[in-house]
Structures are given as structure tokens and as C-alpha cells.
Specification:
- The chain is mainly beta and 297 residues long.
- It has 4 helices and 21 strands.
- The strands form 6 sheets. Strands 12, 14, 15, 16, 19 and 20 form a 6-stranded mixed β-sheet that branches.
- The protein binds zinc ion (4 copies).
- The site of one zinc ion has 7 residues, from loops.
Length: 297
């Protein structure tokens, strides 16, 4: 790069593969920054390995004529060439060739930034193109879903929490980790929202069945990630005066599942089945003790 020329980073917006008029470049200079950036539109196909159609990421290889492919396909070509003792073939050149690293394309790939797919849910990050998948698998703005029937809401966890309160009138039970929380719920009360000290959301789902209530706990978040939690739920047979009789059920879930609630609330790996007779005969309520522990990393 010539001295004195500002390094230009390129933000790329993908347009549909196969769209006419590809390579149309709409450049908008954004001044005032030490490093200027431009926005371009580019045919996404040029960023794919032409053999496996995965996104190209360094290291990238090229044949003698400059046909580019990814490192996985390069390795496969090498293995096949070795096994058949035919040398390494390029299907575009239609002949044997040698391959070398394509640093020019690698630099280009490292310079392309694209917006996160969760932009509408509040993620403002531009990510290096070939790191997009990884970012989105961890992006904290990825949406979670409302589990209520006929509700299509999805949003980042903070928006979902707000939605539960404003649209469905749920009032979350705030709790401290490593301490027991006592709650009473009607036998047909489906969802109970719990919010921990770190604002993590937990959903206790109560499914009424013919033989009792199935209770399960999930952590509502878009990805399985740290921190992890364990959970104990117990239900006792409560008689007049609030005293527990001998019948007691106890569930220990050593690792609470995470769920974005896509597809609704499902029974987790572990659930507690509370027989009908354990509900308070006069109020029809279940009295539960719930303890959620935050596990050390
Ligand atoms: Zn490939
Ligand atoms: Zn070639
Ligand atoms: Zn993101
Ligand atoms: Zn909803």
C-alpha cells in the first residue's frame, strides 16, 4: 500500500447469490476516522469456496492460474492426488497443477466486515466475514422466544423479560443463588419466571398431566454457555396449618438446560412428576421449594 494512503477497511453487505448486477459497488465513505471505511455490496458467491461452498477463511490456496479454494478442499485434493499417484488436479484448469497459499485473498477476507444477523435484536457489531458464524453462535443478542401459545414475540433476553411483564403480566420471582425459595402455584399455572441476581432468567414450566404435574426448569438464554447452574426442586404434601407431611418429592438437576424457547417450552432432561394428591386439597395449589446454585467455572 502506498505510503500516506489511509488503510481502507471494507464493510460488506451480502446480496443474494445469483442476483443480477453483482459486483455493484455502492461506496459510501465515512470520514473523520483515522482509518476510513467504505460500504460495498458484493456477490456472496465470491466469498465461498467454489468446491465445498463454505465461506472462505484463511488459509486459502490457489492453483498456478489463481483458482482459489479452502484448506479443507486443498487437503482432500492432496490426499486423492497422493492415493491415485496422479498429482494434484485443478478442475477449472483441467490439468495437474501446484497450489500455493493465496495471501492476497486472505488479506481481503480479513478486511471484510459484515453486520451480525442479530442487528435487529440490538447487536451493533461488524464481524470479520469468516468469523461471523462463530460470533453468532455466541452472540448474546441472539433472540429467545415467548413460550405462550399464539405469541410470536422473539427478542434479546432483556426484551423478552420486559415482554413477559408488559404483555403477559408475569411478575418474576427474584431470587438469590444457593438459597431456597418457596413458591406456591395453582395446579394449572403453566409458567413461573425466576430471575437470579445476575439477571439470568429461569423458567419453571408446569405441565398438567392425567397422573400429576410435570415440573421442569430451564435457563432462558440463546446459547448453552457459562455460567452453569444446578437446580433442586422439592414438593411436599402440605396439610392444614402449613405443616409438611411425610410425603416429599425431590428433584436434583445437576446441570440446568439452556433454552431459547424456540418451539415453546419443552420438558428438560430432568423433570419432577408431582402426583395429584400432593396438591393442597382446599386451594389446589402446589407448594414448591426451589434452589438454584451457580456452579463454579
Ligand atoms: Zn472448500
Ligand atoms: Zn486452476
Ligand atoms: Zn451479534
Ligand atoms: Zn409473548
Amino acid at each position: 500500500m502506498a505510503e500516506g494512503v489511509a488503510c481502507k477497511r471494507i464493510k460488506v453487505e451480502e446480496i443474494g447469490a445469483g442476483q443480477e448486477g453483482t459486483a455493484a459497488v455502492t461506496a459510501a465513505a465515512e470520514g473523520g476516522m483515522p482509518e476510513s471505511e467504505i460500504s460495498v455490496k458484493i456477490d456472496a458467491e465470491v466469498l465461498l469456496c467454489r468446491i465445498c461452498l463454505d465461506s472462505l477463511k484463511p488459509p486459502v490456496f490457489k492453483c498456478e492460474a489463481g483458482h482459489v479454494l479452502c484448506s479443507v478442499c486443498m487437503e482432500k485434493l492432496r490426499e486423492v492426488g497422493c492415493a491415485l499417484r496422479l498429482g494434484i488436479f485443478c478442475d477449472l484448469c483441467c490439468k495437474n497443477t501446484s497450489y500455493s497459499r493465496c495471501v492476497e485473498v486472505e488479506q481481503f477476507l480479513d478486511a471484510i466486515k459484515v453486520p451480525c444477523s442479530n442487528e435487529t435484536y440490538g447487536c451493533n457489531e461488524f464481524i470479520i466475514y469468516h468469523q461471523k458464524e462463530k460470533h453468532e453462535s455466541e452472540c448474546t443478542h441472539a433472540p429467545c422466544y415467548c413460550p405462550e401459545n399464539d405469541c410470536a414475540f422473539k427478542g434479546a433476553t432483556c426484551c423478552l423479560l420486559d415482554h413477559f411483564g408488559t404483555v403477559h403480566g408475569w411478575s418474576p420471582a427474584n431470587f438469590s443463588y444457593n438459597k431456597s425459595l418457596k413458591i406456591s402455584i395453582a395446579r394449572d399455572h403453566r409458567f413461573t419466571l425466576l430471575v437470579g441476581e445476575d439477571q439470568s432468567m429461569f423458567l419453571l414450566t408446569n405441565t398438567l398431566t392425567d397422573i400429576g404435574n410435570a415440573l421442569t426448569m430451564v435457563c432462558v438464554r440463546p446459547h448453552e454457555s457459562e455460567p452453569n447452574y444446578s437446580c433442586n426442586i422439592s414438593a411436599a404434601h402440605v396439610v392444614a396449618g402449613g405443616k409438611a407431611e411425610g410425603r416429599l418429592l425431590f428433584l436434583k438437576d445437576p446441570l440446568v438446560s439452556s433454552s431459547s424457547l424456540l418451539g415453546g417450552a419443552q420438558l428438560g432432561r430432568f423433570f419432577l412428576l408431582v402426583p395429584l394428591e400432593l396438591a393442597d386439597s382446599s386451594s389446589g395449589e402446589l407448594t414448591l421449594h426451589i434452589r438454584i446454585d451457580r456452579l463454579a467455572p
